[in-house]
Design brief:
Blueprint lengths: L1 H10 L15 H6 L11 H12 L8 H9 L6 H21 L2 E4 L5 E3 L8 E2 L17 H10 L6 H14 L6
Antiparallel strand pairs: 1-2, 1-3
Length: 176
């Protein structure tokens, strides 16, 4: 009985491989994969989905239009590039807190960064604010705007063309 189970397991094994440099695969290895599917960089809809996924449950003031605008302006970015972009945007409120020189208390007694001319502004650094009474700024469209402007693609034009050529020569159906 043990042998039958083993034989069934062997028959049901699926080997899946992924590489960013398929042209470096040995031809014998490449032949053993029945399908070779090229997955291109994410399109606008996929980039929008990725932005939302990476934003997750982080408190923010971004509208659907803000995220759609970011997705539109990130053509050429890979999924990993978009992940970096979102992490950069999520760090913007932290950078603002670190750079703040004045804070004020809100109605609940929490401290938030403010302009020096704001009513109730008090000159202090982040280190002077009690951690339990700190109001962390929400992620905004401006934070995403700065991150989008700073984002750079890790996939060069030559890389893209080489992938396309490889897909034409060695790809097989079922892909995008």
């Amino acid at each position: 009985m043990h042998c039958v189970w083993y034989a069934l397991c062997v028959v049901q094994v699926l080997v899946l491989g992924a590489t960013n440099i398929p042209w470096d695969l040995d031809p014998a290895v490449r032949r053993r994969f029945e399908r070779r599917i090229y997955i291109p960089l994410p399109d606008e809809r996929a980039r929008s989905t990725l932005l939302n996924i990476h934003l997750g449950s982080t408190p923010h003031t971004l509208s659907t239009a803000d995220l759609a605008s970011a997705a539109k302006r990130t053509e050429g970015l890979s999924g990993a590039d978009i992940s970096v972009l979102v992490r950069d945007a999520l760090m913007e409120p932290v950078r603002e807190l670190q750079q703040a020189t004045t804070f004020r208390q809100d109605r609940e007694g929490n401290w938030e960064p403010c302009a020096p001319s704001a009513r109730g502004a008090r000159k202090m650094s982040l280190m002077d604010v009690p951690a339990t009474a700190l109001r962390t700024p929400l992620v905004t469209a401006a934070h995403f705007e700065r991150a989008v402007r700073a984002a750079r693609s890790t996939v060069g034009t030559a890389d893209f063309e080489r992938h396309e050529k490889f897909a034409r020569e060695f790809g097989s159906g079922g892909g995008a």
